[in-house]
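Render this sequence as a predicted structure.
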Amino acid sequence: MTQIVTHIGMAKCLSTALQSAWGRAENYQIFRPTKLIDQIDLIVSDNNGEWQALGEIVSKQQLKRERFEQLDCDVVMLSSENMTTSFTMEANAGPSWIRSKHRAMASLFASCSDSILLLVRDPLSWTTSMYYQHIKQGGTLAFREYVDLCQQNILANLDIKALLDCFNHSCKNVVILPLELARHDEATFWDEYRDRLGVPLPNPSKLPEQPLDTNVTRTSSIATHRKLNSILQALDNTLRWQQYNDKDAVLKGLHMTKTWGARRAMSLGSDQEVSTIAGLIGLTDFSPRTKDMSDLSVALMECFLEPLKASTQFPYPLWLKQYEDNLKSGSVLVY
């Protein structure tokens, strides 16, 4: 009998690599409910995150389990990191918006799923990774500017207690796995995945290694990437208010170069090629800097670490200890 597992993120927690593995597997089928999630985002925005109005609309949506049970495979994965993570530069994604979205996603997906899969990681590392994603998507903020601007949304995204309350209410098997386990011991990660979800492993069960299949950030390129984004944004600011032929095409080209051209170059270029680009814009120092995060660490202890420690759904004391030690240190290395 086909089993249905809903993968709800978190973002920056192996999602791209897992989706690639599931997509290659002979015994799995993967569905990315992007349009449905976009619809829910619009509903949440239209109702200003107010759950009473939102709940009535969500209850009318239909996600039929029978559609997936008829498929010829061992496991159907419904997968999108956007189910639970709201990328924190979205203007409308405030804390109440994020928490209402969690409730909406749980109402839609948990009841038709045999299991829910959630991957987490060290919360300070997650915050750093989200900042790198901001740069990869064309952003120009310095790290601390990003954290100060997005702090409340970061905390709402990492509110594990609120998230688990939503999904535990509708699904009896919510499985939380640490990203660090997959990086440290992939074989054990897959064993935990199989045993705790109660599903066959994907065949083959191996995480991909190619950059486009993993979305792993080349951290040494972040400073170069940010400066390229700033240059492209300055060009956009200069040209946006001028009148000239093909203006729309020029601005579209600049936008595409900032959001995808620079990103692909930083990801796929050789070390020498990336170094050459950095030299052309005057960058020579790519070493990371220690950034103080003690203000955020205190809040993350309460909303992220303590709920994980109290939950039977995260039986990984080694990684909990690492998370706690890093939060107590209150600092991160940022490129």
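Summary. The CA atoms of residues 67 and 112 lie 11 Å apart. Residues 219-286 form one domain.
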